């Protein structure tokens, strides 16, 4: 049986081999697999040539992967973590409709529900390993944010022009269908979060100040919102200068 077989494998078995490969050589997506095979392709090959019968797979690039009990534990923990993640997001309706999340998560949730992997979906299945790592990192960051901002509140009144000192905590460029823009997140001395979304030259200058920069912020309060359990104040018409 070669790596092009159409026969599906159990998700558990596939994740066991994916874990073994990631453990020895790290994760590599197909989009970045230029000089060596992707994790998904090596895991698929291991499933085809060894399956559940042996502990060692001889891979196409001359390397080997050794399946251990730790990989079985990783596979099981990965499925349980994703099950909890999707259940927390949307409950059982997520798996039925698939309309409330992006297409990537829809595909991952479907594979998780079916508990089997075919060649076509092997890339999505392999990506479950780094996805769980990102989910855990995000949960840890969210807990840190909540602790840091446990007394946080909204700033000003909607429509009010405010002036305050703050720290630039996050400066991230994002692409969209209508052109790119910056996400700029600030925190004032009271621990309150303020965010500004803009593709303006002023936003670009602010981003170049770098995360951690102390600034003077003059802005109009656009909206009072919340992000992952923490109140935030959305801003517009911002003028930012180094403190």
List keywords for this structure.
two-stranded antiparallel ribbon, 243 residues, single chain, alpha+beta, OB fold (Dihydrolipoamide Acetyltransferase, E2P), elongated, five-stranded mixed barrel
In short:
This protein is α+β, with helices and mostly antiparallel strands.
Sheet with the most strands? 5 strands, mixed, barrel
Chain-averaged pLDDT = 86
Number of DSSP strand runs = 9
Q: How do the SSEs run, as a string of H and E?
A: EHHEEHHHEHHEEEHEE
Shape: elongated
Count the DSSP helices: 8
Describe this structure in words.
- The structure is a single chain.
- With 243 residues, the chain is α+β, with helices and mostly antiparallel strands.
- The chain folds into two domains: 9-138, no CATH class; 161-242, Beta Barrel (OB fold (Dihydrolipoamide Acetyltransferase, E2P)), CATH 2.40.50.140.
- It has eight helices and nine strands.
- It has helices spanning 11-25, 39-49, 69-90, 93-97, 103-114, 122-126, 128-148, 201-209; strands spanning 9-10, 56-58, 64-66, 116-117, 161-174, 181-188, 193-198, 214-227, 230-242.
- The strands form three sheets. A five-stranded mixed β-barrel has the order 5-6-7-9-8. A two-stranded antiparallel sheet has the order 1-4. Strands 2-3 form a two-stranded antiparallel ribbon.
- Helix 1 crosses helix 2.
- The longest helix has 22 residues, at 69-90.
- The protein is elongated, with a radius of gyration of 23 Å.
- The protein starts with 8 loop residues before the first strand and ends with a strand.
């Amino acid at each position: 049986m070669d790596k092009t077989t159409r026969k599906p494998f159990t998700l558990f078995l596939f994740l066991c081999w994916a874990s073994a490969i990631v453990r020895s050589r790290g994760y590599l997506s197909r989009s970045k697999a230029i000089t060596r095979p992707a994790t998904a392709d090596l895991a698929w090959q291991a499933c085809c040539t060894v399956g559940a019968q042996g502990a060692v797979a001889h891979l196409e690039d001359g390397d080997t992967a050794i399946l251990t009990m730790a990989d079985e534990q990783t596979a099981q923990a990965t499925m349980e973590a994703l099950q909890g993640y999707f259940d927390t997001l949307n409950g059982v309706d997520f798996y039925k409709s698939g309309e409330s999340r992006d297409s990537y998560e829809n595909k991952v949730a479907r594979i998780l529900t079916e508990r089997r992997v075919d060649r076509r979906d092997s890339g999505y299945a392999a990506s479950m390993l780094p996805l769980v790592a990102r989910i855990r990192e995000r949960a840890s960051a969210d807990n840190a944010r909540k602790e840091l901002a446990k007394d946080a509140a909204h700033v000003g009144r909607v429509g009010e022009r405010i002036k305050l000192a703050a720290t630039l905590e996050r400066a991230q460029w994002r692409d969209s269908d209508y052109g790119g823009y910056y996400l700029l997140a600030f925190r004032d001395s009271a621990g309150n979060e303020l965010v500004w979304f803009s593709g303006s030259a002023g936003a670009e200058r602010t981003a170049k100040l770098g995360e951690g920069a102390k600034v003077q912020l003059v802005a109009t309060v656009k909206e009072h919102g919340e992000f992952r359990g923490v109140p935030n104040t959305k801003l517009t018409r911002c003028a930012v200068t180094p403190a």
